[in-house]
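Fig. S4 source data, part A: sequence.
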Amino acid sequence: MDLKHSRSVQLNDGNLMPVLGFGTFAPEEIPKSKATEATKVAIDVGFRHIDAAYFYQNEEEVGQALRDKMADGTVKREELFYTTKIWNTFLRPELVRQCLERSLKKLGLDYVDLCIVHFPFAMKPGEELLPKDASGKIILEIVDIRDTWEALEKCKDSGLTKSIGVSNFNHKQLELILNKPGLKYKPTCNQVECHPYLNQSKLLEFCKSKDIVLVAYSALGSHRDSNWVKSDSPYLLEEPVLKTIARKHNRSPGQVALRYQLQRGVVVLAKSFNEKRIKENFQVFDFELTSEDMKMIDGLNKNFRYAKMSFAVDHPYYPYSEEY
C-alpha cells in the first residue's frame, strides 16, 4: 500500500492500522499523570493510533485519556487503534490471557485493537516486572514462543483483541511462528527499534515478503533511560544530515525521521510528552522527501541499537544475535 499519501495500512487480517502512532512509554521519573495529559493532547492533534504496554505501568492513565476523549465527543471507540503488549513474565500460554485482561481492566475497555508479544524471551512469572535473583540478575526462563502465540490466537478468537502480532522478533523467530503446524493467524506486525542509525532494511524486506507490517519504535532515537540505554549513545536528532534535509524542507529533524519511515512503508511511532512536539510529530503528511533525501538517510545506517537488552544475551530466544 502507498503509505506516502495514505493514513492507514491494511493488515493481513483485514483490519486497518493508522500509519502514525503515539507512543506512551515514559521513564520512571515522569509522573504517571503526564500520560493522561499527553494522550489527550495527542488525540486532539489527530493521533488515532495509541501504542502502550502492560510493562509501561500507565495504562490506567492512558485509558482515562481515551475515555475522557470519547465522553467529550472528540473521538469514537472505533476510530481509535489501541495496542498493548504481553510482558515477558506472562509468556507461559496459561498466563497470556491474564496479562491482556489486566490491561483491559486498567484501560476500562472491552477490547484492544492489537495485542503483541513484547519480547520473544520469557522471564520468571510473578508480580515483579523484572524478577531478579539474589545477585541482582534478571531471572529468565524458556517458553516456546509458538505456545505463547497459540494462546494469543485464542485471545483474538475470544474478541479481547482484534489483531495480534509480535515485537522485537528476528526473521528466524517470525519463521518459527509462520511455519508452526496448525497456525491459525499470521502475525500482523513486528514492532522493532528502527531509525536512520538502525534502518532494519533486511528485516523490512523480509516482513514485506510475508505481508507483515514493520512498526518502528525509537524512530526519533531514544528517550535515553539509563536503565536501558548507554549514556554515550549518539543523539539521532543532532545528526547533521537530518538537520540539512530538515532545513531544506523547512521542517524539524524529527519530522524528517518520521517521514522517512512512512515513505519506506513502515508504520512509525512518535513518542513525546511535550505538547509542542506532539503537534509537530503529527505534521508529517503534508511534505515529501525526495529520492535523494531518502538515499542520504539510508546512508546513515550503522546498525546501531539503543536498547540492546544485553541481560538476555544468553537466552536461546535473544533476538539480536541474528543479522536481522
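Fig. S4 source data, part B ends here. The chain has a mean pLDDT of 95.
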